[in-house]
Write a structure and sequence with these properties.
The structure holds 2 protein chains of 2 kinds.
Chain A: E1 14-15, E2 22-23, H1 26-36, H2 42-49, H3 55-70, E3 99-101, H4 103-132, H5 141-151, E4 177-178, E5 185-186, E6 192-195, H6 196-212, H7 221-226, H8 237-241, E7 248-251, H9 253-270, H10 274-304, H11 312-338, H12 349-371, H13 379-424, H14 458-476, H15 479-536, H16 540-556, H17 562-575, H18 581-586, H19 594-599, H20 603-609, H21 626-642, H22 652-661, H23 670-674, H24 689-694, H25 709-718, H26 726-746, H27 749-773
Antiparallel strand pairs in A: 1-2, 4-5, 6-7
Chain B: H1 3-17, E1 23-27, H2 29-38, H3 41-45, E2 49-54, E3 63-72, H4 76-87, E4 91-98, H5 104-113, E5 119-125, E6 130-133, E7 136-138, E8 145-146, E9 149-150, H6 152-168, E10 174-177, H7 182-197, E11 212-217, H8 232-240, E12 242-243, E13 246-248, E14 261-263, H9 270-275, H10 280-297, H11 308-344, H12 347-359, H13 363-375, H14 381-394, H15 403-413, H16 417-430, H17 445-457, H18 469-478, E15 501-507, E16 510-511, H19 512-524, E17 529-534, E18 537-538, H20 540-548, H21 553-556, H22 560-563, H23 570-578, H24 582-591, H25 600-606
Parallel strand pairs in B: 1-2, 1-3, 3-4, 4-5, 7-17, 10-11, 11-15, 15-17, 16-18
Antiparallel strand pairs in B: 6-7, 8-9, 12-13, 13-14
Helix pairs in contact in B: 1-2, 4-5, 6-7, 10-11, 12-13, 12-14, 13-14, 13-15, 14-15, 14-16, 18-19
Classes of the chains: A mainly alpha, B alpha/beta.
Chain lengths: 774, 607
C-alpha cells in the first residue's frame, strides 16, 4: 500500500488495473500483477503481459468484467434492466443434444441384401465381356454358338414349353430364344438385344471400377462361377436356325434391365451436369471472397483511420480483385439461373427452382459482403486523414497535458488553501522533515514536500491524512492508536479501491462513446473537406502541389514527437530500481504524465520511437491499452473540472499565431491547433528531436517547396474544374450498381429510381472529369 | 436449456455432416414447421441447402447432383415413403435423420430398400417439437383430449415430443404431475415408461440436482387464456394470431401486398427480440424511436444528392437503411393494426373489467361493470361472451350469482348461440368442480396478506394485474414449497434440494402470458432455468373453440376447421377451403392437419 503514500500520483502512472496501485514501472507492474492477481481473470493478466494488445480488447475486458460482476443480462437495444437471473437468450451455450446412430445396423442389413445383387450384376458383366471378347463378324455362327454356350449353360429346350415372361406356347412359329447371359429361354417378343457399343461401355466401365475400388460385395468368386459353362448342352433345332447376330447379343428382359440400371449408374458417375460445374466455380469464388474480403476490410478500416500500416495502392488492388470476384459470382449465378431455360421441353420446375435458389443465395452473398466493402480514401483524402489523425493525437496529448497541469495547479491552490485554513486553526506543519507532534490527542495531516499533493477525491485526502496520523502516532509510540488507525486506513483503502474500479468502468464506457463521437466528427470533417476540394477546383498540376504541401504539414506538427523521448526517459528511469516514488515526484511537473502520452501515441510513430524492449504494434487510433484506461480515468475528469470554467489564457495567442501558418486548417481543427505543443510555453526544454524538426526525415518525399507554399495552393484552389478523384467515382458507381441490383431484387422501385438518378449523376461527373483531364 | 438453440444445433449438424455441395432438405409436414422455426431461408441457403421438398410430394424430379438430407418424424407413412424413395433414388446420396426413436424393424426395411447404396447416414436427432422461444416450446396439437381423457394418438405424440425435448436438452428428469388431472398422470407415466425403456439414451452426465419435469393440466387455470394480453408477443397472438412465427395480416384494411403475411422471429429480428415482452405502451414509444431512427437514416428523396460527399454518405448508410426498412415497415404495420383493433373493439375497457374479474373479489362492482360493457355496442360478441365466461368461472358458486341474467343480456345483445354455449362449456372444462386448486381465493395467510397489501397499494397497471396461476405454482416449486399432496412425484424418489432446471408442460396448451411469466422468473431467479411447453400455444379463440368444444367443430365447418383453425376467421378459412385457385389449394394443403403449417418461404417453394 506504499503507493497510497503519494495519492497525487495515483491518477497517472503504471497503475494496476485491478487494485489501482501505482507501480513505478512496467516491470514492477507486471510482477505485482503476477503476484497479486494471478488467481484472477486470466484474460486481464494476458492483457498486462502483452501491453501492446489492441485497444478494443481492453475495453471489452472492462465491459465484460462489469457484466460478470453484476451478472447482468447485457444491455442491448431498447431495454436494459438487470435482476439476479438470466435471460433465456443468454443461457450459456449448450452441447448438442442426444443422438443415436443406426448406421451400423443399417449397413449390416443392407450388406446382406446388396451382396446378392452385386454378385448378380458382376456375373452378367463378366459373361458379357466374354461374349464380346472375340471378333463376332468374322467368326462362323456355329463357332459363336459354341463360345456362347461355353459362357453360360443354356437351359434345355424341352424343359420350357411356355415363354416364362409372356406365357405363350412355343411352337415352330414361336420359337425359343436363349439369353446369352443367363441361359434362360424366352420367345422372340420378349427377347432383348444388347448392342456391342453398350456392351463395351458396360464392360470397360466395370473394369475401371474394379480396378479403382474393390468393394467387398464385388466378390471375385463370380469369375469362377461363370466358368461352369458346359459345351455338352444340347443345341436346339430352333437355335441352329437363328440368324447370325453380328453386332448384338441376345438376352432376356431381366438381364437387360439389370444391365441398363448399371449403365445408368455409370452415366451418372461420369456425367457432371453443367449446373454442377458452374456451381463448383461459384463456390470457389465465394471461398475466395471469404478469404480476401476480411483482409481488405481490415486494410480499408486502417487506411480510413489514417494509419499507414498498409499501402493505399495495395489496398486498392485488392479491392479491384475482390470486386472482380464479385462480378464473376454474379455472372456465374446468372448463368446458372438461365441454364437450359430456353430448352424444349423446358426443364422440370424443380430444376428451375434450384437454379433460382442458387442465384438468390449468390445475390444474398454479394449483397451481404459487397455492401460491407467500404470504399477507400483517395490519395488526397488519405493524406488528409493521416494529417487529421496526427492532429487528433496531438490534440489529445495536449489535452492530457493541460489536464495534468490543471490538476497540478489545483493542487497548488488547494495546498495554499489548506495552508491558509490551517493557519486559522492550528499551526501549519512544516512542509518537509520529520513529523511533528503538536498535541498529544490528535494527529495532524502531515504534508511532505512535493508529494503532499492534494486530491480532489475526499477519500484519498482522508487516506492521506490517516497515513500521516499513523506515522505521527508511531513516532509517539502509541501502538494502540496506530492499530485502530491502520484498521481505519485499510477500510478507507478498500472503499477507495472499489470506487476507483467503478469509476474506471464508467470512464471506459464514456470513452467508448467519445470515440464514436470522434469518429463521427472525423467523418464529417472528411466530407466537408471533399466539398471544399470540389469548390477549390484545382488542376492536376496544382493537385500534386497541394499534395506535397500536405506532406509538409506534419513537420510543423513534429514537436508531437518529443514526448516520446520522455517516454524513453521515463522508462529508463522507471526500470531502474534506484528510481523511487519521490524521485518521480520531484522531477519536473510535466515529466510525470509523459509516459502515458508515449503509450497512447500513434502506432506508426510509436514503432519508430519506442524502445525495443517494448514491442509496440498497436494500430488502433484512440488507443486503449490497459494503461490508457487509467490515463483516461485521470484526464477526462481533470478536463471536466478544469477546462470549462477557465480556458487556459496562455493558450489563446499562440494558437492564433499558429493559425497564421496554417491558413488551410478548417475551424474544426481549431481544437487541435490550439493544443499544438508548439504553443505550449511550458513544454520541456531539452529536446533532442528539436533538431530533427528542422530536418525532417521524410523530406525526400516532398519536393522543395518554393517560397510560400500556401499561396500556391490557394491559387490552385481557385482555378480549374472539380478535382473529383476518378477512382472514387468508379467505386461509387460500383456500389450504386450493387444497390440498384439489390433494390430491384427486393422490388423497391422508388429506391431504384433514386439510385439510378445517382448513378446517372455519377457517370456524368465521371465523363466531365475525364474530358477535363484530357 | 435453450430449446431454439437445441433444435438449431441439430439442423446445423445435419447440414454440416453432409459436406459441401448442393443439398436438398427432405421433410415431412411437421418437421417442416420445426425447421422453419429455427432457421430462416437465407440462413439455410448460406449452407448450400437450396431445395426444400416434402417426402410425400410426388412431383419430384431426379436430380442426381444433389445430396438429400432427410429430416423426418419416424411415422409409418414416412418410413414407407422413404422406402419408395430409396428404391428409386432421386438424389445422389441420402443422409437420413429421424426426429425420434425409430424401431429396429423399420431400420431393417429401409436397409433392404437401399439396393443402390445411396444412404450414408441413419441417425436419430431429437428435434421433435416446435421451439417458439428459447424457453417456450409447443407441439402444435390442438384438441388433445376427448373430454377428460387423452386421445391415444395425441398421447403418444405428446409423449414423443416431451421425451424428444428431454433428449435434446440432455435431461433425465424426476417427474411431478398435477394430481387432480388424470391426463397429467397418464402423460407422466408414459414419459417415465419411455425413459425406462430407452435407458441407454437417457444416460447423461449427472447433475447435482436432477432436473424436474412438472406436468400440469390447462383445466386448472382456465382463466389465463381468456384474458386480453398487453405484451407485444402475447398481444399479437391474441389479436392477430401467431402460427409458427407467422402472422397473417391479410385482413388488415389497406395492407400492401408484401405485408400480407409477416414473420416475427426473435432469432433474426432485433426489435422484436427486444420488445416481445414489453407492454403495449412501451412498444408504442419504442416504435416511435425506431421510426425516428429510420427517418434519420432514410435517404431524402427530394433532396438531390449534389456532391460526392452527399452521395458517399448516402451510399455508406444504405445497407443499414435497407436492413432497417424491412423491420420498420413490418412493426409499424403490426403495431398499427394492434392499436386499431384495440380501439375498435374497445379493448382497454374490456380488459380492465377482465382483470377485475380475474383478480379482485368484489362481486357487485364486477357484475355492474360486466353489465355495462354488455350494453356497449362496440364490444364484440366474442368479447362479451368472454366477459361472461370469466364471470361464470369466478363467481360460479357465489351466493348472489346472476349468471342467468347475464346470459339473457348476451342473448339480447345478439350474441350467437355458438358463443353462448361456450359459457357452460368453460365451466364444464375449468369450473370449480374440476380445479385441483383454488384460483381465486387465497388459502394461506401469506397469500391473504399479499392480496391485502396489493389492495392497499393500488395497482400499478390495471391491465396487467393478473398473474397466471402458473406463477404461484412455479414460485412454490422453486422455493421447494410445492405441496406433494397436490403435485406428487412419480415413483418413490423425491427431490431434496430446490430444483434448478425445470421443465413445465401444460396439457391443453400454454399461453404467451405464461411464457412471459416464465421469462421473468428466469430473469429474476438466479440459478434457476425454466422451460415452458404445451401441447400448443393458446389464444382465447384457440382454446375455446378447439379445446373446449370439440363437439362444436363439425358444426363450425367441415374438415378443415378440425384440422386447423385460422384465428377467428372462419369465413376466410372456409372460402379458402372451397377455392379452386392453385395458390389457395396449396395453402390449404400446407396448412391441413394438426396445424403444422409452413413458413411462408416454404410455402412459396411448394408453389
Amino acid at each position: 500500500m506504499a503507493s497510497l503514500d503519494d495519492p497525487g500520483e495515483v491518477r497517472e502512472g503504471f497503475l494496476c488495473p485491478l487494485c489501482l496501485k501505482d507501480l513505478q514501472s512496467f516491470y514492477q507492474l507486471q510482477s505485482h500483477y503476477e503476484e497479486e492477481h494471478s488467481g484472477e481473470d486470466r484474460d486481464v493478466k494476458g492483457q498486462i503481459k502483452s501491453l501492446v494488445q489492441k485497444a478494443r480488447k481492453a475495453k471489452n475486458r472492462l465491459l465484460k468484467r462489469e457484466g460478470d460482476d453484476r451478472a447482468e443480462s447485457g444491455t442491448h437495444g431498447y431495454e436494459s434492466f438487470s435482476y439476479g437471473g438470466v435471460d433465456p437468450y443468454m443461457w450459456e451455450p449448450q452441447e448438442l443434444g442426444a443422438m443415436r446412430s443406426h448406421l451400423s445396423d443399417f449397413k449390416k442389413h443392407r450388406a446382406a441384401r446388396i451382396d446378392h445383387y452385386v454378385v448378380e450384376v458382376n456375373k452378367l458383366i463378366i459373361r458379357l465381356e466374354k461374349l464380346t471378347a472375340f471378333d463376332r463378324t468374322n467368326t462362323e455362327s456355329a463357332k459363336i454358338r459354341a463360345i456362347e454356350k461355353s459362357v453360360v449353360p443354356w437351359v434345355n429346350d424341352q424343359d420350357v414349353p411356355f415363354c416364362p415372361d409372356c406365357g405363350n406356347k412355343f411352337s415352330i412359329r414361336n420359337r425359343r430364344h436363349h439369353c446369352r447371359l443367363c441361359g434362360s429361354i424366352m420367345c422372340k417378343k420378349c427377347m432383348e438385344l444388347i448392342s456391342l457399343p453398350l456392351a463395351n461401355k458396360l464392360t470397360s466401365a466395370s473394369k475401371d471400377s474394379l480396378s479403382t475400388h474393390t468393394s467387398p460385395s464385388q466378390s471375385p468368386s463370380s469369375v469362377h462361377g461363370s466358368r461352369r459353362g458346359s459345351i455338352s448342352s444340347v443345341s436346339s433345332v430352333s437355335s441352329v436356325l437363328d440368324e447370325k447376330d453380328d453386332d448384338r447379343i441376345r438376352c432376356c428382359t431381366h438381364c437387360k434391365d439389370t444391365l441398363l440400371k448399371r449403365e445408368q449408374q455409370i452415366d451418372e458417375k461420369e456425367h457432371t451436369p453443367d449446373i454442377v460445374k458452374l456451381y463448383e466455380k461459384l463456390r470457389l469464388c465465394m471461398e475466395k471472397v471469404d478469404q480476401k474480403a476480411p483482409e481488405y476490410i481490415k486494410m480499408a478500416a486502417s487506411l480510413n483511420a489514417g494509419e499507414t500500416t498498409y499501402s493505399l495502392e495495395h489496398a486498392s488492388d485488392l479491392r479491384v480483385e475482390v470486386q472482380k470476384v464479385y462480378e464473376l459470382i454474379d455472372a456465374l449465378s446468372k448463368k446458372i439461373l438461365t441454364l437450359d431455360v430456353k430448352q424444349d421441353p423446358p426443364p422440370h420446375p424443380n430444376t428451375l427452382r434450384l437454379q433460382r435458389m442458387i442465384r438468390y443465395s449468390a445475390t444474398l452473398f454479394v449483397q451481404e459482403k459487397l455492401l460491407g466493402l467500404m470504399s477507400l480514401p483517395t490519395k488526397e483524402q488519405f493524406e488528409e486523414l493521416k494529417k487529421k489523425r496526427k492532429q487528433e493525437i496531438e490534440r489529445k496529448r495536449i489535452l492530457e497535458r493541460q489536464a495534468a497541469l490543471e490538476s497540478q495547479r489545483r493542487l497548488e491552490e488547494r495546498r495554499s488553501d489548506l495552508a491558509s485554513r490551517a493557519t486559522n486553526g492550528e499551526v501549519v506543519p512544516p512542509r518537509r522533515g520529520p513529523a511533528s507532534l503538536r498535541k498529544a490527542e490528535g494527529w495532524l495531516p502531515l504534508s511532505e514536500g512535493q508529494r503532499q499533493s492534494e486530491d480532489p477525491d475526499p477519500l484519498l485526502q482522508q487516506i492521506h491524512n490517516i497515513t500521516s496520523f499513523i506515522r505521527q502516532a508511531r513516532a509517539a509510540g502509541r501502538t494502540d492508536e496506530v492499530r485502530t488507525l491502520q484498521e481505519n486506513l485499510r477500510q478507507l483503502q478498500d472503499e477507495y479501491d472499489q470506487q476507483q474500479t467503478e469509476k474506471a468502468i464508467e470512464l471506459s464506457r464514456r470513452q467508448a462513446e467519445e470515440e464514436d463521437l470522434q469518429r463521427e466528427q472525423l467523418q464529417a470533417l472528411r466530407e466537408r473537406e471533399r466539398e471544399r476540394e470540389r469548390d477549390q477546383a484545382a488542376s492536376l498540376h496544382t493537385r500534386t502541389r497541394s499534395l506535397d504541401f500536405r506532406e509538409i504539414k506534419p513537420f510543423q506538427l513534429e514537436p508531437g514527437r518529443e514526448p516520446r523521448t520522455h517516454l524513453a526517459h521515463a522508462l529508463d528511469l522507471g526500470s531502474s530500481p534506484a528510481q523511487s516514488g519521490t524521485a518521480t515526484k520531484t522531477s519536473p511537473p510535466s515529466l510525470a504524465p509523459e509516459p502515458f502520452r508515449g503509450w497512447s501515441g500513434p502506432p506508426a510513430l510509436g514503432q519508430e520511437f519506442l524502445p525495443q524492449s517494448i514491442p509496440t504494434q498497436r494500430s488502433e487510433a484512440p488507443s486503449l491499452n490497459p494503461f490508457d484506461e487509467e490515463e483516461d480515468l485521470a484526464s477526462p475528469s481533470a478536463e471536466g473540472t478544469a477546462s470549462p470554467p477557465a480556458p487556459e489564457p496562455s493558450l489563446g495567442p499562440p494558437a492564433r499565431l499558429l493559425r497564421e501558418y496554417n491558413p488551410f486548417e478548417e475551424e474544426e481543427e481549431e481544437e487541435a491547433v490550439a493544443g499544438n505543443p508548439f504553443a505550449r510555453p511550458d513544454s520541456p526544454a531539452p529536446n533532442p528531436f528539436d533538431q530533427e524538426d528542422e530536418h525532417p526525415p521524410r523530406t525526400p518525399a516532398s519536393p522543395p517547396v518554393p517560397g510560400n507554399p500556401f499561396e500556391e495552393d490557394s491559387d490552385g484552389g481557385r482555378e480549374g474544374a472539380e478535382p473529383i478523384e476518378e477512382e472514387l467515382l468508379l467505386q461509387q458507381i460500383d456500389n450504386i450498381k450493387a444497390y440498384i441490383f439489390d433494390a430491384k431484387q427486393c422490388g423497391r422501385l422508388d429506391e431504384v429510381e433514386v439510385l439510378t438518378e445517382n448513378l446517372r449523376e455519377l457517370r456524368r461527373a465521371l465523363a466531365t472529369q475525364k474530358a477535363g483531364s484530357d | 436449456m435453450n430449446v431454439v438453440f437445441a433444435v438449431k444445433q441439430y439442423i446445423s449438424k445435419m447440414i454440416e455432416d453432409s459436406g459441401p455441395g448442393m443439398k436438398v432438405l427432405l421433410m415431412d409436414k411437421e418437421t417442416t414447421g420445426i425447421v422453419s422455426m429455427v432457421y430462416t431461408q437465407s440462413e439455410i441457403l448460406q449452407k448450400e441447402v437450396y431445395l426444400f421438398e416434402r417426402i410425400d410430394s410426388q412431383n419430384r424430379e431426379i436430380m442426381k447432383h444433389l445430396k438429400a438430407i432427410c429430416f423426418l418424424r419416424p411415422t409409418k407413412e414416412n418410413v414407407d415413403y422413404l422406402i419408395q424413395e430409396l428404391r428409386r433414388p432421386k438424389y445422389s446420396i441420402y443422409f437420413i435423420y429421424f426426429s425420434n426413436v425409430i424401431s429396429k424393424s423399420d431400420v431393417k426395411s429401409l436397409a433392404e430398400a437401399d439396393e443402390q447404396e445411396v444412404v450414408a447416414e441413419v441417425q436419430e436427432f431429437y428435434g421433435d417439437y416446435i421451439a417458439v422461444n428459447p424457453h417456450l416450446f409447443s407441439l402444435n396439437i390442438l384438441g388433445c383430449c376427448q373430454g377428460r381423457n387423452w386421445d391415444p394418438v395425441q398421447l403418444s405424440r405428446t409423449t414423443q415430443g416431451l421425451t424428444a425435448l428431454l433428449l435434446s436438452l440432455k435431461k433425465c428428469p424426476m417427474i411431478r404431475y398435477q394430481l387432480s388431472s388424470e391426463a397429467a398422470k397418464r402423460l407422466a407415466e408414459c414419459v417415465k415408461q419411455v425413459i425406462t425403456k430407452e435407458y441407454e439414451l437417457f444416460e447423461f452426465r449427472r447433475t447435482e440436482v436432477p432436473p424436474l419435469l412438472l406436468i400440469l393440466d390447462r383445466c386448472d387455470d382456465a382463466i389465463t387464456p381468456l384474458l386480453n394480453q398487453w405484451t407485444y408477443q402475447a398481444m399479437v397472438h391474441e389479436l392477430l394470431g401467431i402460427n409458427n412465427n407467422r402472422i397473417d395480416l391479410s385482413r388488415v384494411p389497406g395492407i400492401s401486398k408484401d405485408l400480407r403475411e409477416v414473420v416475427l422471429s426473435a432469432e433474426n429480428d432485433e426489435f422484436y427480440a427486444n420488445n416481445m415482452y414489453l407492454n403495449f405502451a412501451e412498444i408504442g414509444s419504442n416504435i416511435k424511436n425506431l421510426m425516428e431512427d429510420f427517418q434519420k437514416k432514410k435517404p431524402k428523396e427530394q433532396q438531390k444528392l449534389e456532391s460526392i460527399a452527399d452521395m458517399k454518405a448516402f451510399v455508406e448508410n444504405y445497407p443499414q437503411f435497407k436492413k432497417m426498412s424491412g423491420t420498420v415497415s413490418k412493426h409499424v404495420t403490426v403495431v398499427g393494426e394492434l392499436s386499431r383493433l384495440v380501439s375498435e373493439r374497445n379493448l382497454l375497457e374490456v380488459s380492465e373489467v377482465e382483470q377485475e374479474l380475474a383478480c379482485q373479489n368484489d362481486h357487485s362492482s364486477a357484475l355492474q361493470n360486466v353489465k355495462r360493457l354488455l350494453q356497449n355496442p362496440r364490444v364484440t360478441e366474442f368479447d362479451a361472451a368472454r366477459l361472461v365466461m370469466l364471470y361464470a368461472l369466478h363467481y360460479e358458486r357465489h351466493s348472489s350469482n346472476s349468471l342467468p341474467g347475464l346470459m339473457m343480456d348476451l342473448r339480447n345483445k345478439g350474441v350467437s348461440e355458438k358463443y353462448r354455449k361456450l359459457v357452460s362449456a368453460v365451466i364444464e372444462y375449468g369450473g370449480k368442480r374440476v380445479r385441483g386448486s383454488d384460483l381465486f381465493s387465497p388459502k394461506d395467510a401469506v397469500a391473504i396478506t399479499k392480496q391485502f397489501l396489493k389492495g392497499l397499494k393500488g395497482v400499478e397497471n390495471v391491465y396487467t394485474q393478473h398473474q397466471p396461476f402458473l406463477h404461484e405454482t412455479l414460485d412454490h416449486l422453486i422455493k421447494g414449497k410445492l405441496k406433494e399432496n397436490l403435485y406428487p412425484y412419480l415413483g418413490p424418489s423425491t427431490l431434496r434440494d430446490r430444483p434448478q432446471d425445470i421443465i413445465v408442460f401444460i396439457i391443453g396448451g400454454a399461453t404467451y402470458e405464461e411464457a412471459l411469466t416464465v421469462y421473468n422468473l428466469n430473469r429474476t431467479t438466479p440459478g434457476v432455468r425454466i422451460v415452458l411447453g404445451g401441447t400448443t400455444v393458446h389464444n382465447t379463440r384457440r382454446q375455446l373453440l378447439v379445446s373446449l368444444l370439440p363437439e362444436m367443430m363439425p358444426e363450425c365447418c367441415s374438415g378443415f376447421w378440425t384440422a386447423q383453425p385460422k384465428q377467428g376467421n372462419l369465413s376466410g378459412y372456409i372460402k379458402l377451403n372451397g377455392a379452386t385457385s392453385p395458390l389457395a389449394s396449396l395453402q390449404a394443403f400446407s396448412t391441413d392437419q394438426r396445424g403444422v403449417g409452413e413458413e411462408p418461404w416454404v410455402l412459396c417453394l411448394l408453389l
